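Following the same procedure, backbone shapes were mapped to integers, yielding the entry below.
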Amino acid sequence: MAPKIALCQYSPSSKDLEKNFQAASELVRQAAKEGADLAVLPEYTLSLPIVDEVDRWADKDNFYLKRYQKLAKELNLNLVPGTIGEYNDDGTLTNNCYYIDRLGQVLHTYKKKNLWHPERGCFTKGLDEHAVFKTEEFGNVGLLICWDLNFPEAFRSLVAQGVQTIIAPTCWTLHDAGAGVKYNKFSEKTYLSSLITTRAFENEVVIVFVNAGGPESDGWIGMSQVTMPFYGKVVDFEGGEIGVKVCEIDYSVLDVAESVYKVRKDLSSQDWHY
């Protein structure tokens, strides 16, 4: 039976971490009811980061992580709870993404390496190399976060380790275009649509892209999607609507993609020229 992945599109609506946790949890519960084997939330599901209010929104002592673990175990599904801003033992603050299995255990932690420029005022970039971990249902999995998507090197690093599924919680808005909005106020939608499709094809992977959603008038883009070679979008949100969408994944597509494009064969060749 093909595994099912749920896109849980949402964004925090207040500065109340508990309220946001409950709203995110309801989407995960809905995903479980729809038979999802994996539920993925967007970046910053507990709170958007505010540089001068770090102590208000940063999770302490893994308080919310532990609750997400308990939720995954209760619902018997795999869960990527977006990202959580957390303090490290050395006092630094990183933007962390976790993969939690059906037993509530953390299989992998990824600390965002490529910080979006405004994030650099409060976060320290992750120092660990991009890494792949094995799962029973989704093959070799890698985690990326938002601005990581802009760097093909991140994908190639995961491809070199045999990645099959890349999960990317994101908080990408229309406002991220900055001064570029004078040329096209919807430029970031064009950017994302092109970027996700290209990355899926050129790396022969399943991309689970889950972006923050909300009213377009407030700058939210949404457009969460599962994208694969040949298919393009398997399932997606057209805009910023809040909700859950579930799809089955046929991993045989990846073998066919390699037989056609032979990207991985070229990359592993001793005479590869890059």
Q: What stands out?
A: The chain has a mean pLDDT of 95. The CA atoms of residues 15 and 200 lie 35 Å apart.
